[in-house]
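Dear Dr. K.,

Following up on our conversation at the group meeting, I've run the structure prediction for 2-iminobutanoate/2-iminopropanoate deaminase from Lishizhenia tianjinensis. I'm pasting the input sequence below exactly as I used it, so you can double-check it against your construct before we proceed with anything downstream. Let me know if the numbering doesn't match what you have in your notebook.
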Amino acid sequence: MKKIYQIPGAPAPIGPYSQAVEVNNTLYISGQIPIDPKTGKLNDSSIATATQQVMNNIKALIETAGLDMSNIVKCSIFLKDMNNFAVVNEEYAQYFSSDAPARETVQVSKLPMDVDVEISCIAVRF
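The predicted structure tokens came back this morning:
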């Protein structure tokens, strides 16, 4: 059975996708960008602020599914500029107390709404 999740109170996705989909106890979280779900506007005054917003969006989706951040097993980080890696890494690390998930970080030429960071995740219901 497939279950769809959306951040409570968030605007609907701008394209034909779901924010998160759970199948067979695995939650697939679509790439999150720094959109504030309350306002629908970008929260990207700095790369640190943008990363915090992205991670808060992921956390909201995880919690909506009845999980927590320790259920995340894999993340993919997409950066417009790899020079931002250290700052993104520092902010990202604050969301995992131990046993951080597997991940990769890649530089890409462009992201939706021309943001600087996008992160997707996979979580498992243990």
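Two things stood out to me. Residues 2-124 form a domain with the 60s Ribosomal Protein L30; Chain: A; fold (CATH 3.30.1330.40). DSSP finds two helices and six strands in the chain.

Best regards,
J.T.
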